[in-house]
Amino acid sequence: MTIACFIRYDIDPFQRDAFRDYAENWGRIIPRCGGNLIGYFLPLEGTNYEAWGLVGFDSLAAYEAYRARLRLDPESRANFAMAQEKRFILREERTFTEVVEGAFQKAAQ
């Protein structure tokens, strides 16, 4: 993995459980469609409306191929539709970051 797609969500804090369901669905969909799911994260302390998703790829071309597979995947389409219907995502931003190899996944000693 050389890049990560960092997704920042503003969510309706009163629909936290709906976002959890949405994120858990991606736990099945993203790996099947070719993304390296690093994780989804809900707010715990402090701000109650900010959630995150992180997905890794070998390249931007790999990301584009993944996005094409997502558009065709029935469960992916249903998950997007559920989010639109329930309207628990108020805003979404995507940023692509480069992995710093010497400072990535270092375990505590």
TrEMBL record:
<dbReference type="Pfam" id="PF07978">
    <property type="entry name" value="NIPSNAP"/>
</dbReference>
<dbReference type="InterPro" id="IPR011008">
    <property type="entry name" value="Dimeric_a/b-barrel"/>
</dbReference>
<feature type="domain" description="NIPSNAP">
    <location>
        <begin position="6"/>
        <end position="98"/>
    </location>
</feature>
<protein>
    <submittedName>
        <fullName>NIPSNAP family protein</fullName>
    </submittedName>
</protein>
<dbReference type="InterPro" id="IPR012577">
    <property type="entry name" value="NIPSNAP"/>
</dbReference>
